[in-house]
Give the backbone structure.
Amino acid sequence: MNTEASKAQAGAPGGGAAADATKAVRAFDPPFLHLSTPPHIRSSLTVSKVMLAVIAAMTPALAASVVFFGVEAALFPILVCIAAAVATECVANLILRKRQSIGDLSAIVTGILVAFNLPPALPLWMAALGSVFAIAVAKMVFGGLGGNFINPALAGRAFLVASYPAPMTSYPPTLYGSVNGLAIKAAAPDTLSDAVSSATSTSVSTPAVADSLTSAIGAAADSLADTAALAAGKLAAAASSVADTVSAAAASATSAIDAVSSATPLYVIKHVFAANAYRPGDFSPALKDLFFGNVGGCIGETSALALLIGGIFLISIRAIDFRIPFAYIFTVFTLFWLANGTGAFFTVESLIAPTFHILAGGLFLGAFFMATDPVTSPITPMGRLLFGIGCGALTFTIRKYGGYPEGVSFSILLMNLVAPLIDRCTRPKIYGEVKKHG
Amino acid sequence: MASVSLVKEIKRGVITENPILILALGLCPSLAVSTSVKNGLGMGLAATFVLAFSNVIISIIKGWIPDKVRIPCFIVVIATFVSILQLLIKAYVPLLDEQLGIFIPLIVVNCIILGRAEAFASKNNPMRSLVDGFVMGLGFTVSLLILSCIREFLGSNKLWDLLVVPNFKPMTAMILAPGGFFAIAFVMGVVNWVRGWKKKEVKKA
């Protein structure tokens, strides 16, 4: 790239004099002195090498998703997304008559990230549509890699969330029977069962409501919600496998629903907090599942451990800067620690809610793999810290006060928009610059 | 002769000087109301009505308007016709009134109408201004129809409230605000692509 740019500069029209000068210099160019335009020292790190490293870093999370959701629910969407992303980039390059760029592997990374941001077992055409949107509208229209102003994968997700809200928010349980990552048996039935049953019934009745609009079964939704709530309430006390019985109850109530979803951990903790029923003891047993990945959620975000391994690998080879993920996760942790629901700050229990919040949802995925996108994040060290803090503050705000239980994707998209501004504000001072008197 | 020039005028309003797709005027209402073909057509016709009549009146009174206060004077004329229109719509097509809501009164500040008043009606005779208002309104209506067809089909799988493709799951985002931007950007892109292609042909010839 750089050699091309310098060639282009030398051969630019109007640079005749400069070219002559170069020739003159060349004439005195001793064989041991190589003269060229800066930069003189180039890294051997190319775009495709970095992308390969990112793909390698995502393999643990990919493996975890297959382990917890199965080949059909996790691996198929990932493969479909990769294929759709690469095909779209190839076609877009042909239409725009640009140099074929699929060799830089960035389309594969985008494809994997789109799939990582989708719920498992989403219809495959929907996954493909997200990938096509990500590449065609968010990336190629703005000039391909390096020209996009928002993260393509997140744009694809946002488009799907706005287009198909019901399938995009129905999360099937993992293969090992975890409904929502919470060991419900630890909870006292009277406090948590209310919250859990309301959570479960809402998420079960959502597809039913959507269907009843078309098939005009208004009463079915109500009866379904009641049945599901009843079933969930009973089970919160019995607490062995909520998923089985809720699905049985739902299936017997009406055949109108095609998928049973479970409440995500973030949904549960948000509603438990809203109902003032939060007790740290109810949530501490869930932390282990959240860390290793036995929780419902998007394909790629399930295992915090796998994402952490990939993230540390990327930081260690310096493919990403530690500042963004560190500032992001630290900010979310601190803000939830300040609002931890126990009223105390220096107890072990006060750390449970913030730990829960950094392990649950897509925070690790977003912090390590999407907020660090070199194209859409600031380049100055100070700017990167600010970027991470901004993402963290927005995520906290959305999770705590917003309408959605999860806010990572929207936070990163919003901060993408101000990344150029952050770069401008944190521009380092040029060495030797005279202080303005003013 | 007259008919030839009318065809030329229509071509100017719909194609070469299309208010939305070429001049990029009046984007605000076109983003807001192009969610369904019915709304798009209603808005297009409503704006055409105001455009044609306000153009005529402004063209007639242009000699009496002092230059310094011409914009407020134009607005008064336009607002008069918008009020007439709003009362008519409320009386005869109340459903459209419900659908378009605030966007009918907002025709007052539609850039196309004020733009034509300033750029055309205040410099030309009433007859030509009437034709100009009519063809510009036609161009606006045609662009709204194109946009609303795309958005209603992709966003709710319907055209004129009729189901188009069974088993197609519509993308709700297309009838939300972002869909309006995508549709306008896409259609403008195609228009510019075709124009560039025509220019090349001219160069070659």
